[in-house]
Amino acid sequence: MTNPDNDLDLDHLADLRLRLRHARDPDPTLGCAIIALLLPGTIAAASARAWLARSEGKPAAIGTGLDITGSVEDAMRFLGQLGCGPGWSIIDEDLSDEPPRADSARHAVWLRHRFFDCSGRGQTRPIALVDVAILATALGAAGYEEEELPPLQAGVGSVPDDGGENPGEPPVVDAPDAGWDFTLSEDPVERTRQFLGQCWPDLGMIDDFSILAGLELTGRVCLKNRDGRFGAMDGYDLDAGILRVVDRNAPMSTRFDTLEDLLAAGWVLD
Questions:
Q1: Quick check: is 93 in a domain?
Q2: Is residue 71 part of a domain?
Q3: Phi, then psi, of 19 in degrees rounded to 5
Q4: Cα distance between residue 141 and residue 126, in whole Å
Q5: pTM of this structure
Q6: Domain extent for 113
Q7: 28-38 vs 43-52: helix crossing angle, rounded to 10
Q8: Stretch 173-195: mean pLDDT, rounded?
């Protein structure tokens, strides 16, 4: 879910998030830069900019609430300032048993509120919390309203209060025009061209669970390159018309002017 009124500088955001994903230790400079970008016009942003503007090489203690990459308490406060406070659930996941990757992520955090769901990851829990805060903001969490969504309805197999089975009518949902429904090509290049060039963001027409499940789980579209590398594109970048591939195993990203440029560089759907 993307906020149509989002005026974030997505290029700057991509740079900060890439640095965050590969951070192994607290980085006050990075944390303050993130605060200044995501909380414009606030006292927190003014304090962060003042800390960043200190004389070069001059030691300065990080202010209260600004150590978001090193303090769980400050990272949680940051989430609250972004609008993800009471009513939002945070679920932690330990990634220490996963095969190591270049970003060294050992913590994952899921942020949930009714139908809104996104995740972040990092070497430490504060970094993972900040990562999910960035993603939630880019997806429009601050403007999320439950009232905009239809109420849940009892359907076939649902369980009523008396514990018996309710064979009620299934809810009626909007379905894409059958004339537009199609299966993606088996050819990797054409498949990518169809998905990113013809379908996005009308993904309801696609009958490919693996791609849609990955997007739902991570907010990213997974890609692979003919040279053996793997990468991903953030959904909020795609919603903004930005074709940016973030390398999965290196602290680098590449922005392409056109879909054909991306394909020529060897990137296709994974």
A1: yes
A2: yes
A3: -65, -40
A4: 19
A5: 0.78
A6: 10-145
A7: 140
A8: 69
